[in-house]
Structure formats: C-alpha cells, structure tokens
Amino acid sequence: MTILTPGTATLATWRRVYDGAPLRLDRQADAKIAASAAVIDAILAKGAPVYGINTGFGKLAQVQIPADQLTALQQKIVISHAAGVGAPLDKATTRLMMALKLASLGHGVSGVRLETVRLLEAMLAADIVPLIPAQGSVGASGDLAPLAHMACAMIGLGDVHGGRSAAQALSEAGLMPLQLGPKEGLALLNGTQFSSANALAGLFAAQALFQTALVTGALSTDGARGTDAPFDPRIHAVRGHAGQIVVADTLRALLAGSAIRESHRGADDPRVQDPYCLRCQPQVMGAALDVLTQAAQTLLIEANGVSDNPLIFADTGEALSGGNFHAEPVAFAADMIALAVCEIGNIAERRIAMLVDPALSGLPAFLTPAPGLNSGFMIPQVTAAALVSENKQMAHPASVDSIPTSANQEDHVSMAAHGARRLCPMTENAMQVIAIEALAAAQACDFHAPLHTSPALEAAKAVLRAQVPTLAEDRLMAPDMAAAFELVKAGALAAATGLALPGVA
Predict the structure, then answer these.
(1) At a CB cut-off of 8 Å and minimum separation 6, what does 108 contact?
(2) Final residue of a domain: which of 144, 162, 191?
(3) 162-197: per-residue pLDDT in tens?
C-alpha cells in the first residue's frame, strides 16, 4: 500500500502509482480536510458572495446563486464542463490523474468534505477508472473538461474502463454516487492533474528511453570501432555540466573491457576523430539528462502542490481566489521533455546512418554480408529518419501558444494539456529509433567476431540476440524491429548491463 502524504510524495512514489500500486491518502490529512469544509459552511452562513461557493463561474462570477440552488450549481458545472473529445486517455495515466487530485484535496485547502475524498479513494481501490476523452483542455482554469469527466463518474454519470457505466461500476463496488456539496464540483474540476499526469507519464517513458539510448550509443561506438578517448573525465570536468560528466562516466563504464576497443588502440589507427554522433554523446545526452532532471523537479513540485481555486484557509476562515490552476510550469516542463526526447532520437538516427554507410563505418554497406543482392539495414534507417522527423514537428513548444477562452475572462492559457499528451507518442517514436539502433549496432559488432565488446554490452547484446538473430541475409525486418522495440520499452537492454544507469534524479 502506497500512502500519499500531501506535499511529500517522491517521484518514485508517483511512479509506483502509475505502475498500478494500491494507494490511500494519509489519514493525518483528515483534520485539515474537515476544517476546510467547515469554512465553507461558515461562508454560506454569512451569505456574502464568494466566488465558486455561491456564485457562477468564470465570466459569470458576478451572478450570486440562491442557497437552495447550490447543490444544483455544483452538479451543473460538472455536467456542463464534461465536453472533452477524442480517444480516451489510457487507464494508467487516468489513474495517476485521480491520485494527483486525491493528494491535492488532501492538503485541506479545497473546501471538500471527507466523504468526497473517501469516494475518490474508494474508486481507485475498486479499479473504477473513468473513461476520459483526451482532448479539450487548454491548461488554464485547470484541466476543466478532463477533470469534469472524472467528476461525472463520481456522481454516477458517464462510463469507466472495462466496458461499464459509472453507475454500474459504483453499484457493483457497493459505492453510492456523490451528492456534491458547495464548492465541491469546482474543486474537482479545477487543477492541473490531467496535464501533470500526462507529463509524468512522458517523463517516466523518457527515463527508460534515455537509459537504453546510452547502451545503444555505446554499442554503436564499438560497432564503428570508435574511440573512448572523448569520454575521458578530464574533458568534461573542465566544462562542468553535471549531466555531461555523468554520461561520459557511464559510457566509459559501458565500454570497459571491450576487446573491440583494444584491437584498434594505438598509432596504427589512421582515424583522428570520430563523427559527432559518437564523439559528442556526453555533450548531447548530458544536456538531455540535465533538462529531464530540471523538468522532473518542476513536475514533482506540481504533483505535490495544490492547483485549485479559490483556496480555503481554515486558520483565517478566508477563501482566496488566485491562479494556481494555470499550468505554465507543466507546459514548460513538457516542452523541455519533448526537446530532450527529440534530440535523443536525432543523435541515435545519425549513429544508425553512420553504421550503414561503408565510407564512414568501414563495414559492409548497409550492414549486410552481401550488399547488392541484400539491402540489409537500408530501410530501417529510412524508418528511423521518418520517426525523428515526426518528433521534430511534435517538439515545437506548446507553451508559446495561447488563445483566449471564456469570453476573454481566461485570456492567457498554457496549452500544457496537449503539450504533455504528446510526450508518450514522441517517446515511443524515439524508442523505435533506439530499437533500430540496437539491431544495427549489434550487427556491426558481429562483423568484428571473434572479438567481443565489453561484458556489459555483451550482456545487453545477448538479450537482443535471444529474440533476434544476426542478419545473414534479407528477411522480414518488421518482426525483428518489433521485438527489439519491446525490449527497449521494457528496459531489458539497460537492465542486462548490470550497471546503475542514470535516468532522472
């Protein structure tokens, strides 16, 4: 059981939640939640208009709502805002979104009742995960449409994963649909949890991508009979970037003990310098690591914070309206991850292109023993080029865009939602490129037999070869690429090295 203590969860905690770990809110949060709900009762007793509690929303904030219509007000905001479109968000990311909302409510500044928090907790425990259309949020005033679809399930409307209606799923679990109290509909709808969940999912995928790309990059270096001299720690120490230093250290560790490397060490090697795709791996991958680490820090703060509005402060009895729902930090973090993922794929594709070019690699053309009759890795490299081109288009920053909404009341928005939602497809594209590189680099190393690469890389290569044999002559490449992709996605090649590879701190 993962206990979510508001404000203190680690990235590892959120990763466990994303992977499906059971969870509940720390019971120490109950007192603050109850105190916040009591403030709502006190505000209503005074009768003065307070945004989100007894007024309309957005441009309609000036309309005060009579006390006997406050339940209907909250019901209507949920129903009216459930206006998403497109394919449903995947179950794991939706579950993470629900957990992020649970932790946010657990801070006790949202004005919801304990029973509301308990229902969200119970739905997670019973695997009642709403079907949420993935499109329709601009990432300000919260992820309104996606979170409204989540809230709909809590009141017994809409559908959930598993082919059931929300009402049926709640009934089968012995749960009653929620009757929303004042402020509760708005508290559920306001927040950046959809954008944050998608960004965290993208971050977790980027971490796996990064680690395996270090392995395939090192294997390509040996396959091309490249030098490890550019990974000398003195080079990186004088520049000082932390990620660059870590990546150089890792590449040296991955190549340690390679007989292929030893075979061309010395004055008899006529090459003076390797191409940038080999030589500058620490600089490129190190920069990507630094960017991913910074994005991770931003997302962790966001995951542990509160992005509701208005916020209820029990110590003073105040309801304060602000703009924590604006997802600009998430948008920037998502854009940073997208840039890193794009560059990881870009430099990997250049290594593939280098390996298949006999003028650069010194190996048979397209890595086939009989070029001409066989095309070898000619078209897998083309596929890699197509994928990195797609990623270049998707890497355009989402955060630089804005479009006014809600009759210009919400006149600047973050676009964090689709900025984050693109990360997993981008990472899958890059993983396909890394899978192709793994096949090409292993094939290149096979040409150096009986010499072996390093023990760490041989272990990774053995995992690959258990699924995909050496390419002796042309065969269907798509199944080989698919098998390699599954290994990359699972992190199997990185794990096989036995080394502690850097990812995201």
Answers:
(1) 6, 29, 31, 32, 33, 34, 35, 36, 314
(2) 191
(3) 999 999 999 999 999 999 999 999 999 999 999 999
Q: Which helix (H) or strand (E) holds 320?
A: strand 318-320
Measured CA to CA, the distance from residue 433 to residue 481 in angstroms comes to 9
- Of the residues 14, 51, 194, 325, only one is catalytic, namely 51
Residue 469's contacts (CB-CB under 8 Å, 6 or more residues apart) are none
Report residue 190 as tokens: 């306001």
CA 39/CA 320 separation, integer angstroms: 12
Number of domains in the chain: 2
Which residue range is the domain that position 353 belongs to?
201-307+325-401+414-496
Return the HEC string of 14-55: HHHHHCCCCEEECHHHHHHHHHHHHHHHHHHHHCCCCCCCCE
316-325: per-residue pLDDT in tens?
999 999 999 9
Report the Cα 451 to chain-centroid distance in Å. Answer: 39
User: 64: pLDDT confidence band, cut at 50, 70 and 90?
Assistant: confident
Please enumerate in sequence order all residues whose Cβ is within 8 A of that of 176, keeping only pairs 6 or more positions apart, or say none.
170
Closest CA to 183 of 116, 279, 258: 116
457: left (phi over 0), alpha (psi -120 to 50) or beta: alpha
- Mark whether 176 and 56 lie in a shared domain: yes
18 is catalytic: no
Q: Is the pTM of this model over 0.90?
A: yes
Same domain, 149 and 284: no
- Given 172, 191, 210, the domain boundary residue is 191
331 found inside a domain:
yes
